[in-house]
Write a structure and sequence with these properties.
Number of strands: 31
Number of domains: 3
Distance between the termini: 29 Å
Number of helices: 7
Oligomer: single chain
Helix content: under 10%
CATH superfamily of the largest domain: Cupredoxins -  blue copper proteins
Strand order of the largest sheet: 12-11-10-14-19-16-17
CATH class of the largest domain: Mainly Beta
CATH topology of the largest domain: Immunoglobulin-like
């Protein structure tokens, strides 16, 4: 930990730039010799909503029998409406936070865990020192105060631990939750709300015979990303959602460490997509299936009005192929009939050691990546008339144009690679004080960025994997996807499932693919991260900082 603290001190030369850009937060004007950490609220920041969040160890009933030891965040509303917070009691999920665009929010984070930690507001456009960079991690007994205005449009956002080299373990242990933003434009659409607006957080976990979480840190498990033995939705196994015969808004969130889902209804009903990471689309889109990688969100309109009471519908993750995700005996694709008798399959134990963090040998997951398995079940429970109609037009989206990018003629290329047991971006691993000249970006500029995952030659075969790339700060738009000829067969199993419209903060880049995006870097100076949201890859070093100045 001492080494981390030294690195954080070095980073103050960059954090100082962030302070200069966040003039509304004067409490951040601390001496350069100190760690940049807020321990008390700002006197001149007047929040509309104030919430205290506390990280503790806890025990909850996840499976039948013995309770599971987890790391749990609980919240208390100090100021604001009670509906702003749902503690998700009885699950390992962090509280669901509900804000409205334009609100000023203060979040007081207390760390009572036996480890350093910090929270990142995934998808939110906030100042650099409010974003949850690992350099701001607090020790046990310390407090961090976030103060920012909600600048984002209505949408389904996410927050989670972002602690250097242990993000995967901490998120897996329970340090992750939903953050939902609404705005006037969205509310005018008369979309399903209340009980008919349902968040569904999809995660995979493994448990030992005492119902304790098992996490393997074996090198090959880290290289592919951790894959659990069973699926949980909203923190519960064998999830069944009872519905009425009316329209619903389903907010699907991939909260898994590394698992990629190919979402589809088992009866072939298309998914009607109305929103992605950054909120509603301009108009609804229909897809036979939707790819959802870690950190991504998708909102689906589903109308059950034509179904009889007692009717059941299952959302599955369908089979898909990649060049290498899950190599070394965990090859994705074509794995069927491996799940045993229960809805979510059996639990593979004995190879990974015991206890919360596990250890020992690598495990072959009972649910290989790219195989076909159920995620959740819908059961029509009652007849009820709804008054929601799917709008033909949802919200206007201002399109970004390549010609307006500051680097239109010279895109920033970020090469993704897995080499020598390392996960790299442009051949570099993460360091806290290592911003390179090509990672410095002018504030208030639009940047053209290419993620190259072996499209231009690169490594192929075993070490070429899908990478969900996440950029902190303001959201981006996808310009185009390009696939190399050698990857076209595997790519065909996923290609129709990408929703490339709307605002995004995470994009899945498949092996042999290059994805080009346009990203604004407006308003705030300082360090903003970009990294793979396969959390094991992130912890292995597939993460870097942009310095916005």
């Amino acid at each position: 930990m001492k080494k981390t603290n030294l690195q954080r001190r070095k980073l103050l030369k960059y954090a100082g730039i962030g302070i200069a850009g966040a003039v509304t937060y004067p409490s951040w004007t601390q001496a350069a010799s100190e760690l940049v950490r807020v321990n008390r609220p700002s006197a001149d920041f007047l929040p509309d909503v104030e919430i205290e969040l506390t990280m503790n160890t806890a025990d909850v009933a996840v499976l039948q029998g013995e309770k599971t030891h987890i790391w749990k965040i609980t919240g208390k509303v100090i100021k604001g409406p009670s509906g702003v917070l749902d503690n998700n009691e009885g699950t390992y999920l962090a509280p669901t936070l509900s804000f409205k665009k334009g609100q000023k929010v203060r979040l007081i984070l207390n760390n009572n865990l036996p480890a350093q930690s910090i929270l990142h507001w995934h998808g939110l456009h906030v100042p650099a020192n409010m974003d949850g960079n690992p350099m701001y991690a607090i020790d046990r007994g310390e407090t961090y105060v976030y103060e920012f205005e909600i600048l984002n449009r209505a949408g389904t956002y996410f927050y989670h631990s972002h602690t250097h080299s242990v993000t995967a373990r901490q998120v897996y242990s329970g340090l992750a939750g939903l953050l939902i933003v609404s705005d006037d434009q969205e509310q005018a659409l008369n979309l399903p709300n209340g009980d008919f607006d349902v968040p569904l957080v999809i995660q995979d976990r493994s448990f030992d015979d005492q119902n304790q979480l098992v996490y393997s840190a074996h090198m090959m498990q880290r290289m592919q990303g951790f894959l659990g033995d069973q699926i949980l939705v909203n923190g519960k196994p064998n999830f069944v959602l009872p519905v009425a015969t009316r329209a619903y808004r389903l907010r699907l969130v991939n909260g898994s460490n590394s698992r990629i889902y190919k979402l589809a209804w088992d009866d072939g009903t298309p998914l009607t997509v109305i929103g992605v990471d950054g909120g509603l689309l301009e108009s609804p889109e229909q897809h036979a299936y939707v790819m959802l990688s870690p950190g991504e969100r998708v909102e689906v309109w589903m109308d059950f009005s034509g179904r009889a009471v007692g009717n059941e519908l299952t959302m599955r993750s369908l089979q898909f192929d990649t060049s290498a995700h899950g190599a070394m005996g965990m090859m994705g694709g074509g794995h069927r009939g491996m799940m045993g008798g229960g809805m979510m399959g059996g639990r593979h134990r004995g190879m990974m050691g015991g206890g919360m963090m596990g250890g020992g040998m690598m495990s072959v997951s009972a649910l290989p990546s790219g195989s076909d398995y159920p995620l959740l079940k819908i059961r029509v429970a009652k007849k009820e008339q709804g008054n929601n109609t799917l709008p033909k037009i949802l919200t206007p989206i201002t399109a970004l144009h390549v010609k307006n990018a500051a680097n239109a003629a010279n895109p920033r290329t970020i090469a993704l690679s897995m080499e020598h047991m390392s996960a790299l971006l442009n051949g570099r691993s993460y360091k806290m004080d290592d911003v390179q000249p090509d990672e410095i970006i002018p504030v208030n500029s639009l940047q053209l960025i290419e993620f190259d995952n072996g499209f231009g030659g690169g490594m192929h075969g075993m070490m070429n994997m899908p990478h969900p790339m996440h950029l902190h700060g303001e959201q981006f738009q996808i310009v185009k996807r390009e696939i190399s000829s050698g990857s076209s067969d595997n790519y065909a199993t996923v290609a129709s499932g990408f929703v490339n419209s709307g605002w995004k903060d995470t994009v899945l880049v498949m092996p042999g693919e290059k994805v080009t995006i346009l990203k604004p870097f407006n308003d705030f100076k300082g360090l903003f991260m970009y990294h793979c949201h396969n959390l094991e890859h992130e912890d292995m070093g597939m993460m870097r900082d942009f310095l916005i100045n």
